[in-house]
Specification:
Oligomer: single chain
Shape: elongated
Number of strands: 15
Strand content: 15-25%
Number of domains: 3
Strand order of the largest sheet: 5-6-9-1-10-11-12-13
């Protein structure tokens, strides 16, 4: 019996607003003392009234448009009833049957093959607080309670853990490019629930699924799905096919899922319209004004980089990991006039240092103007690549312009014909065997002469000029 995995994701991403979803509390609580960003509204005190955050609505709609969703004119909030200690109201304000968006799609690429993943809906809701378990006690920090969330629900179109990971990464990039969410996994601004089931290849039936809750990294997402697929395959092999939905957790240390409870259904939550918030009417003019603000999205930008700038698919993918990195590369390429060399310097030299220093492209000191000028000087032969690699560490440390570093370190390239002639004469005298080999038809032997000139000039001789004058001298 041949089985295939049927996978759907629910992605929860915090919306990048200054204040919470239904109150004016500070939405930036990362690193803040516990319970220092709260008020009667977000802690569900009796008699309070929620007021929807207009900016959260705008950013949610922009994200939905970027995900190719339809935006219905009418929408509403609902009460999703369940009790948990980190949910002060005893219910969550979410959206059920009339969300702000439906019927979207995202294209992903795996091993060169493109695939479209359907999106059922993107809806808005408020987050719960955070529980910390210490010994026999559970401590609750309500700073996160009321944080605006968007929940992006995919169709069950994913067929492997690798596809799920790539899809989640693509969603993260889109949200960041649009500015709807910072989607910082380290800060807990993006989390995943993955639903996994199996079925016989060739059938359309959807079997009972296991929903893996609260995955907080791409690695955990991929590992948990892989494990769950393996676990369910063993059940099928033993003819113990799951007959009901379940909710499972992920144990990072053990590398396995564990049963938490039976999966809740919509009926269990007793949804009903939120009585304290009027229904939403999203006029066409409002939606189209937000659509006009959308930037070029990651996929379109990758394709343009390949088509117009001539860089590889892999390089384009790496350079669009973030909007700021893509902007930086494009500016460097424009200044240098050499997109391929610009990509190489950013991906090999700059990103290596960023990863080592654990900082972002915005936090480092080398401006796009400076790196562009460095690449330009190398491309035009004004300086050699070797000199460029001597200059780069100084640029990284100080942020100084290329010209100033060249002058201060005396690294200007030697292009004067007279000076190079003298260096060539000395190199030829030191390497008579190379000249003899060349005269016997071995053109590669000239590399030894060029190398000697570069050594004598401490890397400052113009390689193109050296080769030109050497061939001219040997032809005489």
């Amino acid at each position: 019996m041949k089985l295939e995995a049927i996978i759907g994701l629910e992605i929860h991403a915090q919306i990048a607003t200054k204040t919470k979803m239904f109150c004016s509390c500070d939405n930036n609580a990362f690193g803040a003392p516990p319970n220092s960003r709260i008020c009667p509204v977000c802690t569900g005190q009796p008699g309070v009234l929620p007021v929807p955050n207009k900016k959260a609505l705008e950013l949610g709609v922009k994200a939905a448009l970027a995900l190719n969703c339809e935006i219905p004119r009418n929408s509403k909030f609902d009460r999703k009833n369940y009790f948990y200690p980190d949910l002060p109201y005893g219910y969550q304000i979410s959206q059920f049957d009339e969300p702000i968006s439906v019927n979207g799609k995202v294209e992903i690429s795996l091993n060169g093959e493109k695939k479209e993943i359907g999106i059922t809906r993107l809806h808005l809701e408020n987050d719960a607080g955070k529980l910390s378990h210490v010994g026999n006690f559970s401590l609750c920090d309500y700073n996160r309670a009321g944080t605006p969330l968007m929940e992006i629900v995919s169709e069950p179109d994913l067929r492997s853990a690798a596809e799920a990971k790539i899809y989640a990464e693509e969603i993260q990039k889109i949200l960041q490019f649009v500015g709807s969410s910072n989607a910082d996994l380290f800060k807990g601004e993006m989390r995943f629930d993955a639903s996994v089931s199996l079925r016989e290849v060739g059938t359309d039936k959807l079997n009972p699924r296991a929903e893996i809750k609260n995955l907080n990294s791409f690695r955990a997402l991929e590992s948990a799905i892989d494990f769950e697929i393996g676990r369910q395959k063993k059940l099928w092999s033993a003819n113990k096919i799951p007959d009901s939905d379940s909710t499972v957790g992920w144990d990072e240390e053990k590398g396995e899922t564990f049963l938490m409870r039976a999966k809740e259904s919509a009926a269990d939550y007793h949804y009903f319209p939120e009585p304290d918030i009027p229904a939403l009417v999203l006029e066409k003019e409002f939606v189209e004004s937000l659509r006009s603000e959308l930037p070029e999205l990651p996929l379109a930008r990758r394709e343009r980089f390949v088509a117009e700038l001539g860089i590889t698919d892999d390089d384009a993918r790496n350079l669009t990991e973030s909007k700021n990195l893509a902007n930086y590369f494009e500016e460097v390429a424009k200044i240098s006039g050499n997109a391929k060399k610009s990509a190489a310097w950013i991906l090999s030299e700059l990103l290596a240092r960023l990863h080592e220093a654990e900082i972002t492209i915005e936090e480092q000191k080398i401006t796009a103007e400076n790196l562009g000028q460095l690449v330009k000087k190398i491309s035009t032969g004004e300086i050699s690549g070797k000199i460029g690699k001597e200059i780069f560490p100084e640029m990284w440390a100080t942020g100084q312009a290329v010209e100033k570093i060249i002058e201060s370190k005396g690294l200007k390239q030697i292009s004067d014909g007279g000076e190079i002639e003298k260096l060539l004469d000395e190199a030829i005298t030191k390497n008579p065997d190379a000249i003899a080999d060349f005269q016997n038809g071995k053109e590669r032997a000239l590399g030894a002469i060029v190398g000697e000139v570069m050594k004598l000039s401490k890397g400052q001789a113009n390689p193109a000029k050296v080769n030109e004058l050497l061939k001219k001298k040997l032809a005489e």
